[in-house]
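Sample intake sheet
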Amino acid sequence: MLYQAPSPQRKKDPPARENKLRLFLKRSSEPLLNLQNAAQQRSGFTQQLAPIQEPQGFQHQTLIIEEFEPDVFRQLIEYIHTGCVTLQPRTLLGVMNAADYYGLDELRRACAGFVQCCITVDTVCALLASAERYIQYKCTKSLVQKVLEFVDEHGNDVLNLGSFTLLPQHVVRLILAREDLRADEFTKFQAALMWSKKYCDGNHNTPLKDVIGNFLDYIQFHKIPANVLMREVHPLSLVPYSIIMNALAYQADPTSVDPGKLSPHRVRRQGRSMSVQSSLDPYGSNTTLSSSGSDAGSDQKQHSGSN
């Protein structure tokens, strides 16, 4: 990284290059030596460290790391210096992909082993949010799949989290559309409403009805009890009257309503896989988590124009 484009002078003088690299390593280890010196002074033993003299004409090299966040790269440097690192759910995916990117196999394996114990109800949203930043890296796909499977098992608990509102819109749609999601439909509606209100708090010119309209096709209103529909959902005037009427009609007589009008955007289990998809989502980002497969339904159709 430091010398991938050496100047002609460096090519002619390899010892100078080696000396500068050695000096860089000494400077980078200086904080650790200072810590050791401080500890020795507290124990009554002092040691004088000779100051490092920079050679004449030495120029500091500035590296701009665009692939990874500062906190992630800081943890990587910590591991390189000490052989240890404190893993956190917020930066776990970044550290795992950085370890793979720079060839630190032991750190990558440690991150993979930490995944199983760090996926909890309190951390799933942070893990999914961080996946958006590192979706192009190969370690992300397996972790996201494990997180989504955990979300399926603990659907009601995850949807009630305040951190659920921090997820991008397309990730919220992906969760609500999953067929294996163990959550009742009214809880799904409440989660969509909570996310939409949070979005509108930061975008005052966007009507709440327009935002929540992006999620309505992923909620099976005919599975919400009629008294809840009329007491909790209908008075909000956010769900079209036709959807309410179809749900009530189905509950009265299932043969009176076309099933295709009730849940058009369910994600089937067969052939489901995670993929990276480019979209122009007005409430998301250009690189998205999405569900692909033969039964992904109209969620893919919605993005087909921008693909």
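Comment: The chain is about 55% helix and 5% strand. The beta strands are 273-278, 287-292.
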